Structures are given as C-alpha cells and as structure tokens.
Amino acid sequence: MCKNSEIERNDEQTLLERLEAYGHTDVYPFHMPGHKRRLGPKEMGHLYEMDITEIDGFDNLHEPEGILKDAQLFAAELYHSEETAFIVNGSTAGLLAAIAGICRDGGEILAARNCHKAVYHAIELHHLKPYYIYPPINTKYGINEGIYPQDVEKMWITHQNIQAIVITSPTYDGVVSDIEAICEIAHRHRVPVIVDEAHGAHFCFSDYFPKSAVACGADVVIQSTHKTLPAMTQTALIHLNGDLIDRERIRRMLTIYQTSSPSYILMGSIDGCLHMLSENGEMLYKAYTERLQRLRDAIHEQCRWIKLPEYEELDAACSKDYDKSKIVLSVRNTGMTGRQFHEILLHDYHLQMEMVSAEYVLAMTAVGDSEEGYERLLHALVETDAKINAMLAQNEAQKDALDEEEKLHDWAKLPVVSQKMTIYDAEQRKKILCRLDDAAGEIAADYIYLYPPGIPIVTPGEMITGAVIGTIHWWLSDGLHVSGVYEERDVRIIC
Predict the structure, then answer these.
(1) Structure confidence by residue, pLDDT tens digits, 149-204
(2) Per-residue DSSP letters for 296-365?
(3) pLDDT tens string 357-406
(4) What is the rounded distance in angstroms from the CA atom of residue 269 to the CA atom of residue 231?
(5) Looking at the chain, which terminus has fewer C-beta neighbours within 10 angstroms, N or C?
(6) 55-273 to CATH, choices 3.40.640.10, 3.10.450.50, 3.30.420.10, 3.30.2320.30
(7) Helix or strand (DSSP H, E) at 223
(8) Do 433 and 491 meet the contact criterion of CB atoms below 8 Å apart?
(9) How far is CA 264 from the centre of its chain?
(10) Integer Cα distance of 484 and 89 in angstroms
C-alpha cells in the first residue's frame, strides 16, 4: 500500500496551501507538465526572488534586443528553425497568432477536424470560413488516425481561396500525420501549413521519437514546452520558416495574444529547460527511452485485456508515425469504462492520468519520469488486468454481448456535420436552451466537447445531428463531463 493513502481535500485551504499539500502526497503524475514535479533547472528553486518585470538588463519579449533575443536564437538553433519565439500564454496563443497572422478577416482556412478549440476560436475571432478534413478512426482503439494527404489535395479543387491549412500532429493520443507530404501539396499551391505540435516538443531530442514538423517543411510549428519537456506550465515555442508567411504580422499578433507583462520566471523556465537538454539531453533521453520501451514491452507481455496501441496497428496511408511517449491504455471489450479504469488507477494506486475517454485512459510520459513511477503503473495495470480477466471469466455471455455491441457502434468517430452559419455569426444570434434529445436538426449555439482534449464535436453555427446526440449520450453514460451540455441534458441552440 502506498504511503499517504488518502488524498485529502480541505475546503478551507487556500490554493497555495492545497498545492503545497498535494506536492507532499505520493500521487504519481502521468500527466503534463513534463518535469513531473521533480526534474528542472536547479536555478528555479526560489521563484519569488526572480519574479521581475522589464527592468534594465533583462530585455523585452515583444521587442527583444538583448538576452531574450539571444535565448530565442539559441532555441531556434536547437530546433533547426529559421526563427523561434517564446510564448508564455501557452500553445493557444501561438495558434491564435499564427492563424491571425496568415489569414485575413473573412478569409478561408482548411483545418483538420480534430484540431484544438483554440483553432476554432481563431476562426471565430477573424470571421473565417472553415473547411474541414476529417481523420479516419482506428476502430480497434477508438482513436483518431492521421490526415490523408490526398484529402488535402482534393480540397484545392473546389476551395482554391484557402489561405492556410492547420493540422494537429501529433494528436493527443500520439498519432503523427505525414506532414512532409501535406506540406509538399500545400506549397505547390503557395499555401502555408501551420502544425499544432503542442505534444511534440521532445521529438528533436531522440531518434526514438518521430520527426518534428519543423524538419518536415511546415511554415509555422507551435510546441508546448511544458507538455513533454521539463518546463513550467504555460510555456511554449513558435517556429517560423519559409517565405510563404508574413513573419512581421505573426510577431505583431503575438503581442496581441500574449500579455504585455510576460513572466520572466516562465521565460527563464523555457531557457533553462532548453539549455539543460542541450547539455544533458543525450544522456537523459537515452535513459528515458530505454525505460519507456521496457515499460511498453512489459505491458504487452503481462496484460491480456488492457491493450496498448503500436504504430503497426495504425493505417500507414494516413498515419506517418507514432509517439511512443503516449501510453494509451484501452479497456475496450472488457466491460469496464474509461472513467471506471481512471478511478481505479487514481484511488487504488494513486496514479493520476492525463486524460480519460470513454474506453481508454492516457498516461503521458516524459523525460522527467522516474523508474519508480513506471513500476507503480505496471503493477497497477497487471493487477487490474487480472481482475478484468476474473470478471469476464465469470460471465462469458456478457463478453459476447460486448463484442457484438462494438461491431454495431463506434461512437468514437467524429460525426460529419454541416455548417449553417459562421461561428462568428452564430455567436451574435439569440440563443435558447433545448433538450438534447429534441435538438436534432437545430443549429448549435455552443462548442460541445470533452476536455481534454478540447476537440469540438460541434461548433456554433453547425447543425446538431442524431450522430452528435448519440455520441454525447455515450459520453455522459460513461460518466464523462461534456462541456456545452447543461444540468438537465440541455444544449443551447440558435433561436
């Protein structure tokens, strides 16, 4: 049994007190940030002593001429990018600035439908007309695959005024699209490619991981340093390359979408993290990837029912590679929901996952992980797998019914919906509440999504379909919180 076996919450605690208390528990973080509350630059120990503003000798992020300019040049060299800028408002600010800097108000944009909600917010704010490419679903695991390059090519035939294309790669689950092929197609039409590589800041530090979009020819690449690197939450990088983008306009948009008082602690965290990895990354990543591969191998060998996706099980026609730092743990066809699995790992084993979905949980690993953390996860999975095996052995009829149900339904697929008005126009219209079951054929007034990962199943201005309603009911029945659905299973529609 783990020490500190009860995770106590005191409603009278301040936020700082609760954070301090939580830091002393034995709950292991299989979630971001990548430092895992243990690995980071030693200089960051006394944060309040370093919390400053733009004083003499410390430069200005929005007009860098000195130490911040040098820090960003160092980051660009490390990532082999033509230009790199620090972000202290997360990858969200990078996506907003990139789209605003490339697309003119009222223009057209091509986006993968599984993009983060920040992409949709940029579409809304700049009155853009979006066209979507839907990724296929991997029916074995219920996760989105990559984007077919030929689907990108087809879009130019009927939508030749598209000003940018936005792809999320890797996805939250680690699937990497063929960015090289997509860039080749887009650049043939003189259209820039923006890649949300928020979950891929670690790619360049080991050949064990996929090739970064920076090296694949993408014009703008946004990475969250805090997600998979030992940097503090809210830190990110934006890489600018090629001559298809107006870099000065993107820089200006970064000043709009970021605070005018950027945190020097956060910027110092980015710089310290990158210097630490530049000096010690080869050693750190060799040890990390060896431990990670042993863990993945052990899960395959010792678990019968809990499944772990590998690249060979993806469609190579659309999924170019797979980020093995993502531990997607599927309980499909076991009679257990993702939420139930998540609760077992948290309350019985004190393992906090990054994300819970209807049929799987996601454990994020990073260079900051420890051998002890991996041992605890493997122990929990082996014990839980044995309990699932015993449960199914007692009820073979239930197992057959579960198999048949999976053949009939796959609610993990993003339903294709039609846009009846732009997101911006929908936000200006009067809205009313409607029962979810009565909403088929109505126009959505809200974004409806699970968070994480923050991918809308429907956006304002799109028609709610029976498939959308079925997916939402499936999520709710599995105990997942669905943003945009209210207490009595109501949704907001355009009046």
Answers:
(1) 999 999 988 999 999 999 999 999 999 999 999 999 999 999 999 999 999 999 99
(2) HHHHHHH-SSSB---GGGS-TTTEEEE-TTEEEEE-TTTT--HHHHHHIIIIIH-EEESEE-SSEEEEE-
(3) 989 999 999 999 999 999 999 999 999 999 999 999 887 655 555 554 44
(4) 5
(5) N
(6) 3.40.640.10
(7) strand 220-223
(8) yes
(9) 25
(10) 24
Return the SS3 of 59.
coil
Question: E-strand spans in 145-235?
Answer: 162-168, 175-177, 193-196, 220-223
Contact 69, 83 (CB under 8 A): no
Fold assignment, 24-36+281-398? Aspartate Aminotransferase, domain 1 (3.90.1150)
What distance lies between CA 283 and its chain's CA centroid? Answer: 27
pLDDT(6) > 50: no
Q: To which H or E segment does residue 282 belong?
A: helix 264-302
Instruction: Report helix, strand or coil for 166.
Output: strand
The CATH code belonging to domain 423-494 is 3.90.105.10
DSSP 251-274: HHHHHHHS-SS--HHHHHHHHHHH
Q: Are 480 and 494 in contact (CB under 8 A)?
A: no
Provide the 8-state DSSP code for 464.
P
Rounded Cα gap, residues 366 and 350, in angstroms: 18
- Going from N- to C-terminal start, the domains of the chain cover 24-36+281-398, 55-273, 423-494
At which residue do the structure tokens 């105990």 appear? 479
Of residues 487, 413, 426, 488, the one with CA closest to residue 457: 413
At residue 359, the pLDDT reads: 92
Joined tokens for residue 123: 């579409």
Of 41-45, 226-230, 397-401, the poorest mean pLDDT is in: 397-401
**Are the beta carbons of 373 and 31 closer than 8 angstroms?**
no
430, 495 Cβ separation under 8 angstroms: yes
Closest CA to 189 of 218, 161, 217: 161
